[in-house]
Amino acid sequence: MPRLQWTRATSATLLALVGALSLTACSDDDDNTPDSGVKVDAGTNTDAGTDTDAGSDAGSVDTGIPWDGGSAGTFSCEGKATATLTFAPGQEEELQDKVNTLAECTTITLAAGTFTFENAITIRQKGITLVGAGKGTKGQGTGGASSTVLVFTGAAANSNGLDVVGDRFEVRDLAVWNAKKDAIRVESSTDVVMRRVRTEWAEADKESNGKYGLYPVKSKYVVIDDCEAYNAADAGIYVGQTQYAVVRNSVAKQNVAGIEIENTQYAYVLGNTAQDNTTGLVVFDLPGNPIKGTDIRVKNNVITGNNRNNFASVQASSSTVSQVPAGTGTFMLASRRVELTGNTWGNNNTVDVAVLSGLSIDPNPANWSAAGGNFASSDVYVHGNTFQGGSGDSVDNGNVSQSLRPLGAALAALYAYGETVGTLNVEHLLWDGVDPAPRNRAQVNPINICFMDNTLPSGTTTAIVDLDLQAAVPLLGNSDLVGAWGATRHYAANKAEFNCAGFTPALTIGDLIP
């Protein structure tokens, strides 16, 4: 692990250091699509400056998410006239003409083979189903006898693949290849199902690839099931500014961020595989958004080997995704009431799990007022998981950059010193130590992080680290590695203050789903 030379940090550099690990992606700031109106207050605002029980923040809803696509919203095709339109490769122009004048409750069937488009397929109608012959396999850029591939390699710049606004929308059994922007974007819609869909860009590690694979945003009742996403320059599978979502049995590989849950209420992330991304899974809120994310269950996912070098564009990205250190397994930022159970982490070079404050990316609480002051992380229950080991031993793959990924550089410097005193790796769970702000250091675990009944590698001594960004990072800026290391707190997995049984009331999200 390289030992870096540090100079005195300016306040701007310090803020960058504090925030670097925390931003993998955000929704497109340049889009002006009207908001869906889903602006539900997730709970009362808790003053992060006090040591309160964060479990009282949001409350729990009885949401086992039983709908599985289409039954929970206000629009239904039951009793209405329906139609089916069928297209084969070579009929792309006819298809584009028809989608501009669709009647509601229409099914569009696409035959097996390759469809080539010069523009997005734009749908603005309710009750539309788009179905192909199969999603094919990774790397398949042309359709076969049992697969349908929609190719957008020659499409207009900055266009999406599928661009949808419409309740009760379903897309299944097809692939979207080389979209210029987002592969499948669904916005301001209720009852959205994406099933057996593959999104992919032909070349890995290209910053010019589209930003998002599956991208439902500002929506309600979303199901993403048995899907695949590869090579997105931002997030492969994204759910943002949404209420009630399931992401299950899906695969995200070779993206900057594998799976992302942003400013979302009541989400269930179940049985997915996130491997070979820069960061595997993220759950976070961003400032300025009216939806306060809460009640997220992350269960039975495999989040291993997320060590792909960050290939997001520094200039073109709509976020600071380019700052994420390679090797980040999972992180939560400005998140509350998050349960992680039955998951497997391992071989994530920077860290397996990180819990960060929203103040680490925007230290002005006023900027978080849209959702009632949602900057504080709280109530994180990590239990019954398996940590395989091999993580935290090569921060940012050793390719640290103080200018591009400053917190990765700070971690590398800190743990390079730690190596000299016997601590070799970043612990399995990293907490930035910011919330509540200002922090009372006498409180060991004021935000209720619970770490229980997890399987750890043999010989593990410390499993949790309180990084204390407010104290350690300024000392790093002054090249005081001894003082910076002394400001961090390292805890065993059975530390009493972290050995707690979750939060109250407990999550019910997904209880009705096997």
UniProtKB/TrEMBL annotation:
Domain Right handed beta helix residues, every copy: 168-321
Signal peptide: 1-27
SMART domains recorded: PbH1
SUPFAM superfamilies attached to this UniProt entry: Pectin lyase-like
Gene3D superfamilies: Single-stranded right-handed beta-helix, Pectin lyase-like (2.160.20.10)
Keyword field contains Signal: yes
Keywords annotated in UniProt: Signal
Pfam families per UniProt: Beta_helix
InterPro entries per the UniProt record, alphabetical: Beta_helix, PbH1, Pectin_lyas_fold, Pectin_lyase_fold/virulence, SO_2930-like_dom
Highest taxon of the lineage: Bacteria
Residues covered by region (Disordered): 28-59
Name the UniProt record assigns to this protein: Right handed beta helix domain-containing protein
